[in-house]
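On clarity, I found the account of how folds are encoded harder to follow than it need be. For illustration, here is how one protein appears when written out as sequence plus structure tokens.
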Amino acid sequence: MNILLIEPDAKLAAIYTQAFTNAGHVMRHAQSAQLAVHTADEFTPDVVLLELQLVGHNGIEFIYEFRSYAEWKEIPIVLLTMVAPHSLGITKDLLEQLGIVDILYKPATNLQQLVRSVVEATE
């Protein structure tokens, strides 16, 4: 499976990349929304793993831009964020509209849960 990781923290990105590589997946990392669009253009992801708190454009702005491309409309997005899910204020309808299939809170998610959630997002 091809995974696009959008994560501003290089150390966390390395940890996530190693976990997914060990599980047999291919991961590409972008530290910003702008780089993520370019990376997705060169590397078609099966799923996007996204931190909402980004420098420049935030994660929600990225999702709207990402979804504006016809070839990326159906790619599932998993949020892995430091923003507590209850504080997001995103309705179930909006999650569905944006193609967000799961929201994981970083402090409460271990690597096994993360890998499982991303794999299930593509099933």
Q: What stands out?
A: Residues 49 and 78 are 5 Å apart (CA to CA).
